[in-house]
Design brief:
This protein is of the alpha/beta class. The protein has seven helices and 15 strands. It is about 25% helix and about 30% strand. Strands 1, 2, 3, 4, 5, 6, 7, 8, 11, 12, 13, 14 and 15 form a 13-stranded mixed sheet that branches. Strand 11, helix 7 and strand 12 form a beta-alpha-beta unit. The chain is globular.
Length: about 325
């Protein structure tokens, strides 16, 4: 019998500062996470499906690119940050049964751009890992440091998770939230930004005769994967913005387009470098967006969705994080 589905309740946590570019900030970030979880435990936000944190909230000193989902989950679980995340996930689960911790983790690579992951952890361990599959133009402009998706990443089972509510969510590593309406023949700037793909032990670039067919295969696999899984929620770990108000492009063309494409909702969490937004601004959330939005081009509206509630987390007297509760 199909499990009943209720509205999903997501705590999206925006953080003041920048993504982690080295592993040095990890201890402070883990201490901040403990404080965030403590605030949530003291809240009345029951029930809760997931706590979402920004991309690059933590950093690994190694690459997980060439591992499959099981290998990535095992490798993450064996790290110091993996142990710490599991501890916080178990604290959440005690107060909010079934709640998941969804966090962005970047990693070092050799001869490529950074690994960029969106990882979901529950009380039993790592249950979802999504590696970035839609690089930006800047991600692939330098061939010596190009973000290089693996062919298997596009339909990796770790990209889709089941929430306690019964909803099916796709994990999005930053710019991936722009990819839900990117099909094999879209020919858009986002598709063209995929200039390199690694298939098993072979890396193929856009100048190779067979590259276009390989990219079409990747995008077809991605579309079939999320559609076949019944995804109606996108959880996006976003690297960040200088300040509130600089996220308008993301809201209109990322969050709102994702919500329209999947006929559901999209929720994001990001770093804000200068200062955190007010609770009802820069929400990085959209739901009930009509399909016509996808064809509206430059006339796309924001369709910004407001939170139900919010919590400010302070460290050292200043606003360090903003948690917002969304019900979609």
């Amino acid at each position: 019998m199909r499990r009943p589905i209720r509205s999903a309740r997501i705590a999206a946590v925006c953080v003041r500062g920048q993504r982690c570019k080295t592993t040095n900030p990890n201890p402070k970030r883990l201490a901040l996470l403990e404080t965030i979880v403590s605030h949530l435990l003291d809240s009345d936000w029951q029930p809760l499906d997931a706590v979402l944190l920004p991309a690059g909230f933590l950093r690994l000193g190694r690459s997980l690119a060439d591992l499959d989902f099981a290998g990535r989950a095992k490798a993450l679980a064996a790290t110091r940050i993996g142990w710490s995340l599991l501890r916080q996930a178990r604290r959440l689960d005690q107060a909010f049964p079934g709640a998941l911790l969804v966090v962005g983790i970047d990693g070092d690579t050799q001869g490529e751009g950074d690994d960029q992951f969106c990882v979901a952890i529950g009380a039993s361990g790592v249950i979802g890992v999504a590696r970035k599959i839609f690089p930006t133009e800047m991600d692939t402009k330098n061939p010596d440091r190009a973000v290089t998706p693996r062919l298997a990443d596009y339909d990796d089972p770790g990209r889709i998770i089941a929430l306690a509510s019964g909803r099916r969510a796709a994990l999005c590593a930053c710019y991936d939230v722009f990819g839900f309406h990117e099909g094999p023949d879209s020919g858009s700037s986002r598709t063209r930004a995929i200039r390199w793909i690694r298939d098993d032990s072979r890396t193929m670039g856009q100048d190779a005769p067979a590259f276009t067919a390989l990219r079409r295969q990747a995008l077809a696999g991605w579309q079939a994967h999320w559609r076949g899984a019944g995804v109606d929620l996108a959880l996006a770990a976003i690297h960040g913005f200088e300040k509130s108000g600089r996220d308008g492009y993301w809201q209109r063309h990322g969050m709102a387009c994702a919500a329209a494409a999947i006929e559901g909702a999209a929720i994001g969490a990001a770093h804000f470098e200068e200062c955190l937004p007010e609770p009802d601004s820069s929400t990085l959330a959209a739901t009930k967006v009509p399909k016509t939005h996808l064809a509206a081009g430059l006339n796309r509206r924001a369709h910004s969705f407001p939170p139900m509630d919010s919590l400010v987390i302070r460290k050292g007297g200043r606003r360090a994080a903003l948690a917002r509760l969304f019900q979609v």
